[in-house]
Design a protein that fits this description.
binds iron/sulfur cluster, binds thiamine diphosphate, 9 helices, 7-stranded mixed beta sheet, 16% strand, alpha/beta, globular
Length: 243
Amino acid sequence: MLESAFPKSWKNESKPHKFCPGCGQALALKILGYAIDELEIANKMVYACDIGCSLLTWDMFNIDTIQTHHGRVIPTVSGLKMAKPEAITVAFLGDGGGYAIGAQHLVNAAMRNDKITVILINNANYAMTGGQYAPTTLIGQVTDTTPIGRKAEAFGNPIHGPEMIAQIAAPGAYIARTTSNNFDDCKKKIKKALQNQIEGRGFSFVEILAMCPVNWKTNTVDSLEFIDKKMTEVFPLGEIKND
Ligand SMILES: Cc1ncc(C[n+]2csc(CCOP(=O)(O)OP(=O)(O)O)c2C)c(N)n1
Ligand code: SF4
């Protein structure tokens, strides 16, 4: 029986992960590992990652892991849960995977009230492919494909994923937004999402604002500030659905 989501060698120490230095996804995943351990569910967990920087986690945890095509991690996990309802499942993906190429899967999993947990990283860009604009890119934000800043006239407005999904989700669904800048809040919301699945209440979805210093071309202080001052103004943190 597994006692921890973390490999024994780095349970209490830092592992040299595969993300860029300062990446917010690495923080989010370490927090997920702590949440799994605190809930003592490592032996029941199946973790699944998408394409995008999330694929760098295909061997991160000491638990059964699946890696899928871009945007397809949610239906993969939904299918797994149907075949193996006793498993506790997490689909981990980026904002391109969840709100662009795989948006239909997010919508349909929520409408079916699949009893799975989706954790989506909002870093306001397509990171792995070099920093193109994503559905979450802020108005005015410069990316490789919006060199003069995103304009609503050309690309519409940033998607508010949790708010959109909350409108269609069934009673019992848990939907929240947090940031990996805030360890305690992030862990609390991930644990609530997992608990929702454990109790069989319904679909659970947590969007995590996470820094991407390499594509944002920001230093540590500016990366933290971009989230805490600019992103949270557009994407307010909180529990969007918890009934
Ligand atoms: C079907 C398909 N189309 C396009 C790609 C190229 N691709 C790989 S990663 C990626 C963007 C990933 O962005 P996101 O999902 O936001 O994750 P991030 O890298 O930001 O964590 C794209 C377009 C692909 N791998 N598969
Ligand atoms: S490109 Fe951005 S999101 Fe991807 S690993 Fe590097 S810092 Fe993290």
